């Protein structure tokens, strides 16, 4: 136990020392050296800047090239999408949750997290994630459509209809909303929730 604590303290000290080093001289690790950094002063504090290395995500090494979340095939958002498409909803949830923790103002991470929770039938957590996305973007067509689908999964046709109607009013030609409206009608006629 003492060895483990000593090792953790040593690693933390080495990390702080390395964070303060820059080309053989010590510098303030919290001071921005990016030209024009004042232009980004209004950016949320949790966003990754060009000077910050990306952390590894669940054992997958991070890219050395920072950029938009989702632009790197090994960042949490991209890995979450990949796992979601592969129907690995538990892993998708972990990656999307990690992306949302690293970038709490990224609505796409919250939407992916909500969709993963829906597929895991954790509707209480899905509702919280949808509310986070709405807090960032407002009630967009995509969010309303996804919420409508979520309510269909639960068998709550009335609330599903309300959300899908609201999505359709915002974008009458949206094929995803139209597909979910048709799915809602089919589910309602059969009298059971979609799987």
Which structural class best describes the helix and strand composition?
mainly alpha
Oligomer: single chain
Low-confidence runs of at least 5 consecutive residues: 12-67
Q: What is the number of helical segments per DSSP (H or I, 4+ residues)? A: 8
Estimate percent helicity.
55-70%
Overall radius of gyration: 21 Å
The major beta sheet can be summarized as:
2 strands, antiparallel
Counting DSSP E segments of at least 2 residues, the number of strands comes to 2
Question: Can you put this structure into words, describing what you see?
Answer:
The chain has 195 residues and is mainly α. Helices cover 59% and strands 2% of the residues. It has 8 helices and 2 strands. Strands 1-2 form a two-stranded antiparallel ribbon. Strand 1 and strand 2 form a beta hairpin. The longest helix has 19 residues, at 2-20.
């Amino acid at each position: 136990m003492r060895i483990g604590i000593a090792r953790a303290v040593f690693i933390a000290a080495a990390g702080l020392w390395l964070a303060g080093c820059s080309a053989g001289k010590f510098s303030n690790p919290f001071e921005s050296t990016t030209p024009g950094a004042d232009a980004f002063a209004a950016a949320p504090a949790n966003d990754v800047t060009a000077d910050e290395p990306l952390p590894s995500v669940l054992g997958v090494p991070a890219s050395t090239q920072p950029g938009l979340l989702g632009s790197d095939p090994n960042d949490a958002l991209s890995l979450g999408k990949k796992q979601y498409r592969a129907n690995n909803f538990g892993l998708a949830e972990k990656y999307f949750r990690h992306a949302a923790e690293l970038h709490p103002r990224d609505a796409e991470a919250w939407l992916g997290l909500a969709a993963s929770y829906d597929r895991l039938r954790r509707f209480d957590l899905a509702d919280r994630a949808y509310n986070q996305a709405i807090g960032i973007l407002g009630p967009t067509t995509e969010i309303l459509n996804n919420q409508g689908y979520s309510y269909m999964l639960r068998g709550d046709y009335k609330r599903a209809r309300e959300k899908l109607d609201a999505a359709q009013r915002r974008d009458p030609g949206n094929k995803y909303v139209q597909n979910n409206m048709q799915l809602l009608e089919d589910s309602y006629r059969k009298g059971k929730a979609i799987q």
